[in-house]
Amino acid sequence: MKPLQLGLRANLGQFTLLALDNVFVGMLVGSERAVVPLVGEQSFAVSSTALLLAFVVAFGFIKGPLNLVAGRLADRWGRRNVLLAGWVFGLPVPWMLLFAPSWVWIVAANVLLGANQGFAWSMTVTSKVDLVGRSQRGLALGINEFSGYIGVAIASAVTGALAATYGLRPAPFIFAAIVAVMGFLLVLLVRETTPFVHLEQKTYGGAVPSAAQPMREIFADVTWRDKTLRACSQAGCINKFSDAAIWVLLPLGMAAQGWNAAAIGAVAGTYAASWGIAQLGTGALSDRFGRKPAIVAGLVLDACGLAVAGIASALAIWFAAALLAGIGTALLYPVLLAVVSDVAPPVSRGTALGVYRLWRDGGYAAGGLVIGLFAARLDLGATFMTVAALLAISAGLAQLWMQETCTRLAVTQGHAA
Q1: CATH number listed for the domain at residues 15-197+213-415
Q2: Angle 261-289/292-311 helices, nearest 10 degrees?
């Protein structure tokens, strides 16, 4: 049997399978982007923006905590088992959306979608980091997030076009059902990556510990005790306020101006595509030039994108807002994951990433609630502007708290991988 080796080239086959599976993970959630807010408004006569945001809140309340659960289970039971469980949760989602008799069913479907994303996306992230080792971590995470958000972009555009041609139901959700089955079947070809964790620990960190670091210690480090990880957790959380705003407010704002589902899907697809494609470069660049500048700049660009959305009227301005927000998120999204992976010991990496992703994706729930409160008192433009201000504050906190963790540039050895 061929001995294990860390690195992208040595594990290209499995890495590619994981990237392809994450395309389908992204496509499943992307199937909702252009369509579900319109289903709520047009099919179920949901007039309250706060109530429309309930499906995003449900998604975030489930996905955030299950990121944490997934990370801990991955360290104990293996990555592949958790990935497979994620797809089991995802299989019923399109059918619930397709046959939903009320808005409550849509919200319930998003509970399962949150479980799918919390388990499946988490494991494609963790498994890729396992395979490549420390020297190509930013590149690996950039490819992972690229693959996922290209999936989001493709599905947003396809379902928007299907909805414009054939109606909001059933065509978009039949497409989603095919995506779910293909993603599930692909996992059967994926192998377990835990042995690579032990190899990395032995190579760079000495013998594999007999017991994992206690959960409470990892939780404390990632949440508040370590300033750099604290910066990551708040930045990831506030970034999801931005994503929640684009997910729900952008379709509503464009529809109010008379744009059809195809145009809305194209703008939503531009956001996800720019986010996805740019990550191919941003993750790798952070391996050479550092993590912190990319994260701070990304938050600032995100804020600019939302501010532009707040004044958008012409279609070109909507596209510009989507492009700015997409590139901003691309600058910070894989790099935040890389920082957590830099700081966490290899054998605790799954749990540390789970804690970070708990706070990051909990931003969907918190953001949905906060944006709903803003939208109840302000118009959509002012709501976009308010969320933009929160992102600017987050950029300031990241600049204040974060230390550089890239092994080429780290100032302190305590934060070198």
Answers
A1: 1.20.1250.20
A2: 160
